[in-house]
């Protein structure tokens, strides 16, 4: 399946949970602006950590919070995701350490990361910068 778009269904954590198997066989997952919370990140992390086809994941404009992204990063370390969009997700500098560990992982395939319109601050950008030192795959950072 080329694209899974949660906007075509009931936009909620529960609906995403019920459709995770569909998401796993998709190449692109469009989950932006779907009323998702950190609860979805726990389930997504498990899906990303298992066999899946996802190359692009757009979770922008959801209230994921730092706790959600930290959970999500567990699954990101072992998947082949190339594009991750987390714009406007109420993230702070606390998310940056978890994202930095993904970026510095040898198994990371991320080529594009969008963290725009979050409150990362200088204290968050520092660990991200450190995580990028040995990452030659990332081409776009927003």
From TrEMBL:
InterPro entries: Leu-rich_rpt (IPR001611), NLR (IPR051261). It comes from the Eukaryota. Signal peptide: none annotated. Keywords: Leucine-rich repeat, Repeat. SMART domains: LRR_RI. It holds the Pfam family LRR_6. This is Ribonuclease inhibitor-like.
């Amino acid at each position: 399946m080329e694209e899974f778009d949660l906007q075509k269904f009931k936009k909620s954590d529960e609906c995403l949970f019920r459709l995770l198997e569909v998401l796993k066989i998709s190449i692109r997952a469009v989950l932006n602006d779907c009323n998702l919370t950190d609860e979805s990140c726990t389930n997504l992390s498990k899906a990303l950590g298992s066999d899946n086809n996802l190359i692009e994941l757009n979770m922008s404009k959801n209230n994921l919070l730092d706790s959600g992204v930290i959970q999500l990063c567990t699954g990101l370390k072992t998947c082949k995701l190339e594009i991750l969009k987390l714009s406007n997700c109420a993230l702070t500098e606390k998310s940056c350490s978890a994202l930095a560990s993904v970026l510095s992982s040898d198994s990371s395939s991320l080529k594009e990361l969008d963290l725009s319109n979050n409150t990362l601050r200088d204290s968050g950008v520092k660990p991200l910068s450190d995580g990028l030192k040995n990452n030659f795959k990332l081409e776009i950072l927003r």
